[in-house]
Structure formats: C-alpha cells, structure tokens
Design a protein that fits this description.
The chain has one domain (about 1-75, about 100-250, about 315-340): TIM Barrel. The chain is an alpha/beta fold. The strands form two sheets. The chain has an eight-stranded parallel β-sheet. Helices cover about 35% and strands about 15% of the residues. Helix 2 (about 45-55) runs parallel beside helix 4. It comes from Nocardia panacis. This is Propionate 3-nitronate monooxygenase. GO terms for molecular function: nitronate monooxygenase activity.
C-alpha cells in the first residue's frame, strides 16, 4: 500500500481547472508527500502530455484524478436558468459529456501510474480490476458511509473522506437539489462514521490548512491528509491571479451550484449571491454554460463573476513553495501529535 511508504502523510488534492500542474505534483512528491495530477476537464491526449511532463520532473510515485461520468440532465431543468444568465452575461452552450472517461481509463491502463483517484462516483468492479491488473491502486472520494460501502464493493484500495469544509466540488456520487436539506458531515464526523463502517485506509480531506488540523485527522484514524486550498498560493500552482489574490482575505465561503450545476464551496461573491438560489443541479451542462462568463471575469480581473474555489480555512494559508509548505505542515502536525494543544493555533 502506497500510504505505508510515504515519508510525509500529505496528499496533494488534484484541483482541476487550472491550479493542478506537473510542477506542483512533482514538488509535493519530492518533498515526501504524494502528488496527484488533475485530469478533470482535460482530454485523454492532454492528460497524457501532463503525465509525461510530470515524469520528467520526478522519479517518485504520483497519482492521477478522474471525474466519474454522470447522466445527462433534462434540458427543461436548466434552460430557464441559462436564459436568465444570458440577460446579463455571455453564456455558452450547455452540453453533457463523460469527461473522456473511457479514453483516460485506457491511457492509465496502458501507461500506469501509482494511484488513480476518482470523484463524483465510483467505476465498476471491472474497471477497477483493469487498474489493479497493471499494479495501480484505486482510491475513491466519498462523502458518506453509503458511498464508502459502494466503493469498497467495487474494489477500492482506499477512501478519500471529503468533509463539508472542503473547497471545490462536493465529490458526492449523486448531486440533487433535495440534498440541500441535509447538512453534509464535517470531516471529523465523517472520519468517525467511516472508521466504524470500514477497514479500508482513509485519507482525510476538507479544511486541512494547518499542521494542527492534519494532526487532528490523523488522530482520528486517517492514514494521510489530502490538502488542496493550502497549495493554491504556491508558486508551482497554476492558480489564476484573481483567485490567488482573493485567498488570503477573510471572505466567507459558501456552497453553490451557480457556476457549474454541482455543489461546490468557494469564496462568496456577487454571482453566488445573485444566482445560487435558482441554480439547478445540472452538471456538467451549467459548467459549459458559464464557461465564457467566468473566462471574461478572469481576463478582466473581476472576482465577482468567477468561481473562487476554497476550503473554509483558506485565510490561514501561507505563500510558500510547495516543498517548504509540505515540510512546514508536516513539522507542525508532528508537534501537535506529540504534545497537548494549548493556546491559539498558528498558521503553517
């Protein structure tokens, strides 16, 4: 099991859509953690190029994250929302696709990496077996005990437990409007529930921006911590300047479907306030519909009309090179695990 051989129990969250780069992935692996490369929104060909680039930067193990395909949404569910947006913004054409799932899976069977991780669902046992046959571990991101059991039944080697605090998209297997009536469990709650329900190794994810927070997750039985938001400010990350500039402020976060049609946590801004209430559960259709307006906002330096994904603890993150950040977080976690916590928790 790869988790048994990490020098540092820190896993890089994949962060699709720009922040994930070969340089960031390689830097985390080189520092003794485990780098994960995001393949979400990329074609299989682009994914192959990024894997090759990562291999030129590190001889160590790294992983690749895939988005499990969902099902198309009835256009009647999202057409009114897109029409309302079009009165204020340039919008794109909503469409459904599988994010090149089958071709990416073929790629990763032909050119294996150490670990493949998955969000938004769980592949079939046959698909997992194909990865196992080439020596690849398969980790599934889960948000509930039911999802954990389904992942275990499919042959998952480890579970990434995503708490409500996490930035970016909720990894739930199914995203429905009815889900909004149920509070998603926080990370510490989810870890306790999963530890009671499964013996699979757990990787904790959600709001882990300090070493003390990582220590808390490890104390509850996680084998490692998956960290995303804290790496967004590293120079190796491909974080857009508008996004990067917003992360250090004490802006609150919120969950919204307004940008992509799937619940995601980001820094609260005007677009969220104006459009979250009527945003439909329609992913990836809304993702494609809002792509032009988000691109225009980034180009204009306008933080009020772009998705600024971030976890709840974003304001205590540090601007450090990735390797230094891994070392700082690991040292702080070791100290917190070895001594009783007292007084205020500092940053990295």
């Amino acid at each position: 099991m790869l988790l048994d051989h990490l020098r540092v129990p820190i896993v890089l969250a994949p962060m699709a859509g720009g922040p994930s780069t070969p340089e960031l992935t390689a830097a985390v692996t080189a520092a003794g953690g485990f780098g994960t490369l995001a393949a979400g929104y990329l074609s299989a060909e682009a994914t192959a190029t990024r894997i090759a680039a990562t291999r030129t930067l590190t001889d160590g193990p790294f992983g690749v994250n895939l988005f499990a395909p969902g099902t198309p949404t009835d256009p009647a569910d999202y057409t009114p929302y897109v029409a309302r947006l079009s009165r204020e913004f340039e919008v794109g054409t909503p469409k459904f696709d599988t994010d090149d799932w089958a071709a990416k899976l073929d790629l990763l069977v032909a050119a294996p990496v150490a670990v493949v991780t998955c969000a938004f669902g769980c592949p079939t046992a046959e698909e997992v077996a194909r990865l196992h046959a080439v020596g690849t571990e398969f980790w599934v991101t889960v948000t509930s005990v039911d999802e954990a059991r389904r992942a275990a039944a499919a042959g998952a080697d480890a579970l990434i437990a995503q708490g409500a605090e996490a930035g970016g998209h909720r990894a739930s297997f199914v995203d429905r409007g009815a889900d909004d009536a149920v509070d998603p469990p926080t990370l510490l709650t989810l870890l306790q529930l999963l530890r009671a329900a499964t013996d699979l190794p757990l990787v904790a994810a959600g709001g882990l921006s300090t070493g003390a927070a990582i220590a808390a997750a490890l104390a509850l039985g996680a084998r490692a911590a998956q960290v995303g938001t804290a790496f967004l400010r590293c120079p190796e990350a491909g974080t857009n300047p508008v996004h990067r500039a917003a992360l250090g402020a004490a802006t609150p976060t919120m969950l919204t479907r307004a940008f992509t049609g799937r619940r995601a946590r980001g820094l609260r801004n005007r677009f969220m306030d104006d459009h979250s209430a009527d945003a439909p559960a329609a992913y990836p259709e809304i993702h494609y519909a809002t792509a032009p307006l988000r691109a225009a906002a980034r180009a204009a330096g306008n933080p009020d009309a772009v998705n600024l994904w971030a976890g709840q603890a974003h304001s205590v993150t540090c601007e450090l090179p990735a390797g230094e950040l891994v070392a700082a977080l690991a040292a702080a976690a070791k100290t917190a695990l070895g001594t009783a916590l007292s007084g205020p928790i500092q940053g990295c």
